[in-house]
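Sequence only, no structure available. Ideas?
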Amino acid sequence: MTAAERREQLIAIARTLFADRGVDGTTVEEIASRASVSKPVVYEHFGGKEGLYAVVVDREVRTLLDMMRAALTTGGPRELLQAAAVALLTYIETSSDGFRILVRDAPVGSPTGSYVSIIGDVASRVEDILVGEFKRRGYEARLAPMYAQMLVGMVSTTGQWWLHARRPTKDIVAAHVVNLAWNGLSNLEAEPTLFRDAPKP
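Reply:
I predicted one. C-alpha cells follow.
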C-alpha cells in the first residue's frame, strides 16, 4: 500500500469511528488496529488523533459547503429556500457518518470548521435574499439577519431529526419545511408583538 493509499485508509477508518463514538471515544490504538498498522504509522501521517480528526472534519465541511453553495446560486427566494433544504437533506442522506461528525462538538481549540460555521455561512447567504424581500414588502431590512438565522436554524434542526427518523422521504420533508417557512414569511406582521395582555376567558 502506498503512503497515499494508507492515508486514505486511515481517514476512512477514523471517519467511521468518529461518527459512531465521537473523537473522545476513539483511540489511536483502535484506528491503528483496524488498519493493521502500528500506532506510529498514524502519528507519522497525522501527528495524532486530533490531526486526523481535523482532516476528516475539513473534508466534510468542504463537501457540505460545496453542496450548499451550488444550491444557493439562482432562483427566487422560495426556490432558494427549497434548494437549501434539499441540499442539506441530500448531504445527510448520502453522508450520514459525515453529518454525525459535524454535529458533534469539536475539540477545544480545533482549527477546523464546524457545522455551526457552515450553518452561519448559509445564513449569511439567506440574509442577502431576505434583505431584498424585506425592502420590497416594507419591512425593516435590519431584521433580515435574525430571520435568516431562524429559517436556517429550522432547516438545520429538522435535518438533525431526519438523520435518525428517515421518514417521510427527503422531498416530502423539504416540501413541508418550505411550506412552513414560506407561508409564514408571506404573512409576516410588520410589527409583531407578544400577547402579554390577552383577554382572560
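Confidence is low (pLDDT under 50) at residues 106-112.
Hope that gets you unstuck.
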